[in-house]
Amino acid sequence: MEDEFELRDCPDCGDTPDIKEYYREIEGVLFSGVVCEKCNLAALHFSTQSGMTLWNEMVQEQSGNE
Mean pLDDT, 10 residues at a time, over the chain (66 residues)? Predict the structure, then answer.
């Protein structure tokens, strides 16, 4: 099983994503997560660890790998 904390490349453009702490405020709540700076694809969550997990799940679904 692949390590869930090793980020996969962006499924849209293939670039390497960046981990962002307190990246964006939405309705008064700060979100952390993982963001591809090249195409602005993002997996935002309340914590960076959750954002990393969400990013990897999103990449897996978009690439069709279960």
Answer: 72 94 84 91 82 87 74
